[in-house]
């Protein structure tokens, strides 16, 4: 059974290696055919990066509902197991093919590329930065880069909604244990963005008006603020700055989605909040291990080169939708051009550009009118001032969402 080398450019973290080393990884890989019902166990796969190539697998995790993984999805580009993962076993739901890649060989290639002065793809590494990048990559590959947990209330709501025939009553019982969350959801249901004829006075009524999937996205959005906090004063300041910028992007993207009637605004807001979620475990690892980074530019470069990969692992770890993986990996890819209608990542790219223009961070920014995502959202745009007018029209909505998220 021969491995299709064109897949390599999609596999995380193997795609970060130079082409020659990617091909060597493929030559030493193992292709394994599974029959429906065959099982894989985490303690038997710790020496390998294991990927689903064809078929469907059922991922069983401790204290979580099982998750169905299919080939040709964003999640299939990530290893099935990471050390320290909650996944205890995997069951093939159909005839499937998996590929195993040697972790030790991968780490040796990372060392070789960094110590030889060569670069990992898309990485410009100084000697110090290369050392730190290598340490963080090793921690990531070994499962020692601690990924944040989805807050408890978000886990419970997500689990409830994964069951067939789940209802607003099921979710209201969970949310009722958090009075602050109840108040926020009722306020949103009665707010100008969702107001109906009659005011809502109960959490059940709020969930019905907002819709269960929208409510889930809102609950995750409101609960993740706690992840941007640390006992370390220095780390806490940086996380607060990260949260503030994420809130700004979330508010802009929500307003653009609402204004254009494209996609689900609450989900787009969640995407905006999570687009740099990969930064949190990177900063936490540096803080916990005492790694010294004296140059702010070096730290920013390390973060930029790792946040997409790590962010994708967080989204996958939480079991959130595949479109969010595309967001964390591509939110600064200004020339991203996907076929079909506008998607979540397109909206976050546009919001990112507006955010940077708003804060005069214009270095490296393209003209927004030339960005494929913007053209897709506003295909009839002919006016040079159109982009500025759109942002001005969304001002009040952006302000309202920012106030909501910062409470």
From TrEMBL:
Xref: SUPFAM superfamilies: cAMP-binding domain-like, HD-domain/PDEase-like
What PROSITE patterns does the record tag this protein with? Answer: HDOD
Q: Could you tell me which InterPro entries the record lists for this protein?
A: cNMP-bd_dom_sf, HDOD, RNase_Y/CdgJ
Q: Which Pfam families match?
A: HDOD (PF08668)
Please state every residue range assigned to the domain named HDOD.
147-334
Coiled-coil intervals: none
- What name appears for this protein in its UniProt entry? HDOD domain-containing protein
């Amino acid at each position: 059974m021969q491995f299709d080398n064109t897949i390599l450019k999609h596999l995380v973290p193997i795609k970060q290696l130079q082409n020659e080393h990617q091909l060597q990884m493929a030559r030493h890989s193992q292709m394994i055919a599974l029959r429906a019902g065959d099982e894989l166990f985490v303690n038997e796969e710790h020496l390998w990066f294991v990927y689903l190539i064809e078929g469907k697998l059922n991922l069983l995790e401790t204290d979580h509902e099982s998750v169905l993984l299919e080939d040709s999805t964003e999640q299939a580009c990530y290893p099935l197991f990471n050390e320290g993962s909650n996944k205890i076993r995997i069951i093939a739901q159909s005839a499937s093919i998996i590929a195993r890649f040697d972790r030790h060989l991968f780490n040796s290639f990372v060392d070789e590329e960094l110590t030889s002065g060569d670069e990992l793809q898309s990485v410009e590494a100084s000697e110090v930065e290369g050392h730190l990048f290598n340490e963080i990559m090793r921690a990531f590959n070994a499962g020692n880069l601690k990924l944040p947990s989805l807050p408890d209330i978000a886990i419970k709501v997500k689990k409830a909604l994964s069951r067939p025939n789940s209802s607003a009553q099921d979710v209201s019982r969970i949310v009722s244990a958090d009075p602050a969350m109840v108040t926020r959801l009722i306020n949103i249901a009665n707010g100008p963005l969702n107001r109906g004829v009659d005011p809502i006075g109960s959490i059940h009524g709020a969930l019905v008006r907002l819709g269960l999937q929208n409510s889930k996205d809102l609950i995750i959005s409101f609960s993740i603020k706690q992840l941007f906090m640390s006992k370390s004063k220095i780390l806490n300041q940086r996380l607060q700055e990260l949260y503030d910028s994420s809130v700004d992007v979330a508010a802009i993207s929500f307003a653009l989605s609402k204004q254009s009637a494209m996609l689900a605004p609450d989900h787009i807001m969640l995407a905006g909040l999570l687009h740099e979620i990969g930064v949190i475990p990177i900063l936490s690892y540096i803080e916990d291990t005492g790694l010294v980074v004296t140059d702010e530019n070096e730290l920013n470069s390390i973060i930029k080169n790792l946040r997409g990969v790590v962010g994708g692992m967080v989204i996958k770890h939480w079991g959130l939708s595949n479109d969010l993986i595309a967001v964390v990996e591509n939110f600064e890819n200004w020339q991203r051009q996907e076929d079909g209608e506008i998607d979540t990542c397109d909206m976050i790219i546009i919001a990112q550009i507006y955010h940077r223009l708003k804060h005069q961070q214009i270095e490296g920014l393209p003209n927004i009118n030339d960005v494929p995502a913007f053209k897709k959202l506003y295909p009839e745009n002919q006016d040079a001032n159109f982009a500025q007018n759109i942002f001005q029209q969304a001002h009040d909505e952006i302000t309202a969402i920012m106030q909501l998220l910062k409470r």
